[in-house]
Each structure stands twice: as structure tokens, then as C-alpha cells.
Amino acid sequence: MLVVFNEVGRSTLKASRLYLLRYPQRRQPSRATYANIDKCLREKGTFPTGVKKGKSLSALDENHQCSVLAAFELQPHASIRMIASQTDISCSLVYRILHQNSYHPYKIHYVQGLKPTDPIRRLDFISHMVVLHEEDKNIISNILWTDESCFNNNGIVNRRNSHFWSKNNPHWTYNAQIRWSINVWCGNFNNQLIGPYFYDCTLTGIRYLDFLVNILPDLMADVPDEVCDNMWFQQDGAPHHNANVVKDHLNQQYPSQWLGTNGPVKWPPRSPDLTPLDIFLWGYLKDKAYEQQPKLLIDLKERITAACRTLTTTMLKSVMDSIISDTKNV
Fold first, then answer.
1. PANTHER family this protein is in (predicted)?
2. What is the mean pLDDT of the chain?
3. Contact predicate 87/68, CB 8 Å
4. Which contacts qualify for 273-277: CB closer than 8 Å, 24 or more apart?
5. Which of 4, 26, 27 lies closest to 15, judged by CA?
6. Does the pLDDT of residue 220 top 90, yes or no?
7. Handedness of CA 193, 197, 203, 205 (dihedral sign)
């Protein structure tokens, strides 16, 4: 900046234009900055407050750079403060060394834990579904995709994004001790939402069988009988789904046409990315239900039911199309 300023005869206007022309990628200082820096250096011999003479990394001791980089290679989860203490270098200098060498603080990502046999079972399932889809292009729409999810009164609280702006401390609290919850069943058939149905008790094999025998037919009442006759049934590997009484009922009700852990078509465990309910529905419903903390169980049920009514055929079809596309690309 000072070189440019003196080249143009200490004219702030000309200095701004020349600096922009010469360094278009840099942040452009104001015209007053040139005069202010020049004045302080001439009168006081120092830079004005807020402008620091940075020590270039090229001038750093190469041993310091090697020490910092080696420390992070051995301790990739260490903090800048920790490495600065170990190497006796300032935190800002450690950060500059990392930045100069293209290091980035990557964050942890949560993923679904898998067992060694899971990939093979997933590929077998996908291969089976691809064959079925080639034989019947409507197979995906003829499957009743089902799942349960637990909703509770605490919802999802992100304290990082929750604020209460006030001049005085309002002592804003969130009661996380008193908990109650409700299990919700939903289905997706031919891009239409079936349900919701609320379980007010712990799910067991017997209770799930009672649901299949006595409740599900009522939920499917609007579906024509001839359509139900060709319907496939899908469920995941939840413990109550694997009860022998449930398996016997499904074998009788949907012979050779149901997907599950013990079904004719083996459902791969730990595969939430293969169902429209896990991929989209539960996240959508919980976003709606937890916009405000529910106070009563009936309030939570009403919110879930209202959120279900906002779902459209287009939304559900888009999810199913993405599953079909992803399956073909495996």
C-alpha cells in the first residue's frame, strides 16, 4: 500500500485506482487508510491501531513449521491451543502455518454403523428388487412401505441456534427431565400416506400382530380390494416385527409377497436409506411437530396428524423416484 501511495505522489485517489488495478483479488482499502498509515508512520513511526505488521511465514523458522505439522500428524484431533503449548508457538502462528499448508478442521459426521455382512445383504436385496422391477415396473408402487417412529415432548433442541434476546437475563430454561413419548406408525402405498396410527404403549410382537389383524385393514379401507390382493408388504428388522406370530401372519396374508428380516424377500438390516419413511417422512413430520415444544400428548398427536395432511402425492412420488434411481445406480 505504501509503495503504491508513494508511486502516485501520495494521492489517495490515484493510489486507490492503481491498487485496484494492480491487486484486483485483494481487499481494497479505503482512501483514508492510505493517508492514515502514512501519517502515523511519519509522525510516530508506528502503524495505526488495528493495522499490524504481520510476520510472513517465509520468515519463520522452518523447524517451527515442521514441529507444528508433525504434531498434528501425530495428534490430528488436537486443538490449536494444545499444539501451541507443546511447540511454544503462539496460537495465531500455529493457525497461519496450518492455513499456509492447506490444513482444514474437518468436522465429525455421524453414519449408520454396519456389520461386515451388511454390504452383501444389501447388494442381494437390491439385486432382487432390480429383477422384480424389470418384471413389473409398478412393483415399487405396489409395496406398502411401513415403519414406526418415536415422538416425545422434548423434541429436537438445538441450543446453538436457540436465543432469547433481552436486556435482562430471562433465565430461559428447557425442562428435559419430564419425558413422555408416543410411537407412531405410518405407511406409504402407491404414493399415498396410510395413517398415522398412534401406539400408546410399548410395542411387542403380540401388539403388533393385533395392529396387523385389526387396525391395518381399517387404515386400508379406501384402497380397492383388487389392489390389495396384489399388494406387497414391507417392514424393517425391529424386534417386534420378527416375532414368530407376526411372521406366520404375514406368510398367510402375503404369501411370497412381503419384505422383512424373515420374509421371502430378505430385508437388509440397518438400511434406513432404502425406505421412503426413513429417508423423508419422519424428518418432515418431526420438523413440523417440533416447531414449538408440545405441552400435552394430545397436542403432539394433533400436530403429527396435521403435518400428515400437508403431504402431497407429488412429494411422496419424488421420494420413491429417488429410491428407484439410487437402487439402479448401485
1. HTH PSQ-TYPE DOMAIN-CONTAINING PROTEIN, TRANSPOSABLE ELEMENT TC3 TRANSPOSASE-LIKE PROTEIN
2. 83
3. yes
4. 273/112, 273/326, 274/122, 274/125, 274/323, 274/327, 275/145, 275/147, 275/234, 275/236, 275/323, 276/145, 276/188, 276/316, 276/319, 276/320, 276/323, 277/145, 277/146, 277/147, 277/149, 277/186, 277/187, 277/188
5. 4
6. yes
7. negative
Which residue type sits at 32? A
Residues in the chain: 330
Calpha distance 236→61 (Å, rounded): 60
Residue 141 pLDDT > 80, yes or no?
yes
Instruction: State the cell numbers at 243.
Output: 416375532
In the chain, the N- to C-terminal Cα span, in Å, equals 56
pLDDT score at 175: 57
The residue type at 93: L
Q: Which of 231, 269, 225, 224 is nearest to 145 (CA)?
A: 231
Single-letter amino acid code for the residue at 189: F
Buried b (16+ CB within 10 A) or exposed e, 52-75: eeeeeeeebeeebbebbeebbeee
Residue 206 has pLDDT above 90, yes or no: yes
Q: Residue 14 and residue 139: Cα distance in Å, rounded?
A: 72
- Residue-level pLDDT at 187: 96
> Which pTM value belongs to this model?
0.62
Q: pLDDT tens digits, residue range 292-302?
A: 888 888 999 99
Please give the biggest Cα pair distance in the chain: 96
218 CB neighbour count, 10 Å cutoff: 8
Strand 143-152 relative to strand 192-199, pairing: unpaired
Q: What pLDDT is recorded for position 158?
A: 47
